[in-house]
Design a protein that fits this description.
Blueprint: H1 2-17, E1 22-38, E2 41-59, E3 62-68, H2 73-88, H3 121-138, E4 142-161, E5 166-182, E6 189-197, H4 206-219, E7 229-235, H5 237-250, H6 253-257, E8 278-280, E9 303-307, E10 310-311, H7 318-324, E11 338-340, H8 347-352, E12 356-364, E13 374-385, E14 388-401, H9 402-407, E15 409-412, E16 422-423, E17 427-435
Parallel strand pairs: 7-12, 11-16
Antiparallel strand pairs: 1-2, 1-4, 2-3, 4-5, 5-6, 7-17, 8-9, 8-11, 9-10, 12-13, 13-14, 14-17, 15-17
């Protein structure tokens, strides 16, 4: 971290000497280990070590950027020269420039996000093999495997700019996953499970992951289609966060100033039921996106995105904010940890309350129109009657419009999937079109 900080400071000095009116530098270094096994045999072992230096300069309202992975003096000097040359040949952009100096973070904290895993390739392979074997042994209907994997990474990064800001961060992330195939021939079904965490101690046990993968794959055997109609749809937690992702895309600055969003001019508009809320918490211990500052050095802050169903603000960095005549929301680089308020019980209670409807456990395709909000995606899951699973479902499409879907949300469960920075439980949408058999 100290070495990267020194490089960042040196590069800023070079930018000033070259005549740049403003400059910013990002430096990062990452190392990791990834192993994959399949059918009890080793497939790949990969050790990675990456680094990168990015320099951006501003000559008034003209911007230029260049990058390198070479830390030699001549390479660093050439990177600054290239960034300056690009800036001198670009047109003025009135929105270009660093974030305002008075918005820079004054305090840089850590949020318990640094937990390196002392695991070598042999140990990682043993874990992956045990995970896959537990899954293959769990059910006689597991005929094949797409393999199991173990990954671990640790990264450090430094951001500095000519306002005098310099912030350093470090993080780790570890993952164990398994994908299995049940049945044979045309009746094969594939599914899996994985666990990911900041600290290895927070990972699910490898054998448990394998067994869960087997259970999910076997449960999908002998699927049926459904007649076309309108029914309630329950999105299981791991797919429910995709609905929140569509909201984030629609209220992000880039989509808004390009007029490519169905939520243009929607601040202070009721988008969800009046009990619904989403809060951003950048300071969550062991959060996947916890940070004291965003990618422009702006101090992060806890704030509501949705309150009482009403959109409170957009998601903006300084560039998109200027394009819209607004102020950055400290979201350059994306949102931090989001919490979606639950108004219902756990998954079992949500399922038990469904008289008749569809449980979605997998989504396929990219059929979402960001301009109109029209939504149409392939789906798989289970048909529910009287609060119980009746049979697996495949080969169907679920459709609607995101505006209507948001307003039709009836429940959010407490069964939060902890594997993402979007912390949300299962979501029940009161009515959607399900297209299956004619």
């Amino acid at each position: 971290m100290a070495a990267l900080s020194d490089i960042a400071s040196e590069l800023l000095d070079r930018c000033r000497t070259a005549g740049a009116t403003q400059a910013e530098v990002s430096c990062s270094q990452e190392h990791g280990l990834n192993v994959n096994v399949r059918m009890g045999a080793v497939e790949t072992v990969e050790s990675t070590r990456d680094r990168g230096i990015a320099v951006t300069v501003y000559f008034g309202k003209r911007k230029g950027s260049a990058s390198t992975a070479d830390l030699r003096e001549e390479s660093l000097a050439a990177t600054v020269e290239q960034a300056c040359a690009i800036a001198r040949h670009t047109e003025d952009d009135e929105a270009a420039g660093l974030a305002d100096a008075d918005l820079m973070a004054r305090e840089v904290r850590e949020f318990d996000g640094w937990h390196p895993w002392d695991v070598d390739a042999d140990r990682a392979l043993d874990i992956a093999l045990a995970c896959e074997q537990a899954g293959r042994d769990a059910d006689a209907r597991i005929e094949n495997s797409d393999g199991a994997s173990v990954g671990s990474s640790a990264s450090i990064s430094v951001y500095a700019n000519s306002h005098g800001f310099l912030g350093a961060e470090r993080s780790t992330q570890h993952t164990i996953g398994c994908a299995l195939i049940a049945g044979r021939g045309d009746g094969m079904q594939r599914d899996g499970w994985y666990s990911t965490a900041i600290a290895a101690d927070d990972l699910e046990q490898a054998a448990s992951i394998g067994r869960h993968a087997a259970e999910r794959a076997a449960a999908r055997l002998q699927p049926r289609s459904l007649p076309t109609g309108e029914v309630p749809v329950l999105f299981q937690a791991e797919v429910a966060r995709s609905l929140i992702g569509h909201l984030l895309g629609a209220v992000s600055g880039g989509s808004l100033y390009r007029r490519a969003s169905f939520l243009i001019d929607s601040v202070n508009t009721q988008l969800f039921p009046d009990w619904f809320s989403i809060e951003e918490d950048p300071f969550l211990p062991r959060g996947f996106r916890s940070a004291s500052f965003d990618s422009e050095g702006v101090a992060t802050r806890a704030s509501k995105l949705i309150e009482d169903g009403v959109l409170q603000r957009y998601i903006l960095g300084s560039y998109s904010a200027r394009k819209l005549g607004l102020t950055t929301t400290a979201n350059a680089g994306g949102v931090h940890n989001l919490r979606v308020r639950a108004n219902a019980g756990d998954f079992a209670s949500l399922l038990g309350g469904m008289q008749r409807g569809l449980l979605v456990t997998e989504l396929m395709g990219q059929g979402v129109n960001s301009v109109t909000g029209d939504y149409s995606r392939g789906a798989a899951g289970f048909w529910i009657e009287d609060g119980r699973v009746q049979f697996p479902v495949d080969g169907i499409t679920i459709a609607g419009n995101l505006r209507s879907m948001f307003r039709a949300i009836e429940a959010v469960g407490t069964d939060v999937d902890p594997r993402s920075h979007i912390r949300v439980g299962s979501i029940l949408v009161g009515k959607m079109t399900v297209a299956g058999e004619s």
